[in-house]
Amino acid sequence: MRLLKLFVTLAILVAALAYGAYAYWQSRLDAPVAIAEPTLYEVPRGASYHRIVADLAEQGIIAEAWPYKVLARISQDDLPQLRAGEFMIEPGMSGRELLSLLSSDRVVTYSLTIPEGWTFDDMRGALADAPKLVQSTGDMSNEEVMAELGHPDQHPEGRFFPDTYSYHKGISDLDILHQAYERMQAELNRVWETRDDGLPLDSPYEALIMASLIERETGVDGERREIAGVFVRRLERGMRLQTDPTVIYGMGDEYQGNITRADLRRATPYNTYVIDGLPPTPIALPGRAALEAAVDPAEGDTLYFVAKGDGSHHFSRTLSEHNAAVRRYILNR
């Protein structure tokens, strides 16, 4: 009987010790991480669970590695599958929450804004400067980029939708370009389906060219359709568009901030003071509002406009009225 009591006592003691050890282990997993401020941590591609736990301990993000190693021994089948990527670890986060974070899709994201009216070269410059973006196209020409995207015969200008794009480490500049290209195609197809009857534009691409001219001429919401109306009426009457942004685009790197009379007379494929109709390609990346204006121009009888110096324009019906507006807003200034 005494031996039985001793055995029961030992069993209870062992059980109590086991429970205490288990409770202590659980408390260490529930304890907050050992950081005082948000910490960026990257799980490398292909890194094992044990390697990440050891690294977290080495960097002082967790106080000790043993609770996580015990978890790996006990819960092999239910062990979190850690995801490669960057994660922001917050102070006060428990060890369990840390493992949940590192096995989730809550990776750190970055954003890249491509403004309306930029050129494709501007966009490529922004992509080259974007942090954590894999640079796949740095040594490629514009033609090679388009070939890589699967559109070798297309001119790149205007083909990419200006917007803010989110990405995470591991995404490449080519991935962003592909997204922007598909977005522009979708937006262009959408607005083309809503185009006005009788529009002097024969294809979605001509609408894209028109939208780029509108985008470069004004950023004023209420003017886009008015400017589109002027351009459409000039096309219908066989008048040249005579829009300065096309001259600037055709000058390329030669443009230093001013247009001379000689520049207006210079024959380039884009100089709409010299050529008839639309230029051969877009001259910028148009946004949604410019695309919509291109296929839905305002009705009216104006044929000219001139910048007033405050971002808006004065619209005229006749050449004499336009010349007076030029004297008022350009020559006098």
UniProtKB/TrEMBL annotation:
Site description Important for catalytic activity, residues in chain: 217
Biological process, per Gene Ontology: cell wall organization; peptidoglycan biosynthetic process
Gene3D superfamilies for the chain: Classic Zinc Finger (3.30.160.60), Endolytic murein transglycosylase (3.30.1490.480)
Key words, A-Z: Cell inner membrane, Cell membrane, Cell wall biogenesis/degradation, Lyase, Membrane, Transmembrane, Transmembrane helix
Superkingdom as given in the UniProt entry: Bacteria
InterPro entries, alphabetized: MLTG-like
Molecular function terms, GO-annotated: lytic endotransglycosylase activity
GO cellular component: plasma membrane
Catalytic activity: a peptidoglycan chain = a peptidoglycan chain with N-acetyl-1,6-anhydromuramyl-[peptide] at the reducing end + a peptidoglycan chain with N-acetylglucosamine at the non-reducing end
A Pfam entry, by short name: YceG
EC number: 4.2.2.29
Protein's job: Functions as a peptidoglycan terminase that cleaves nascent peptidoglycan strands endolytically to terminate their elongation.
NCBIfam families: endolytic transglycosylase MltG
Family: Belongs to the transglycosylase MltG family.
HAMAP family documented for this protein: MltG
Designated name of the protein: Endolytic murein transglycosylase
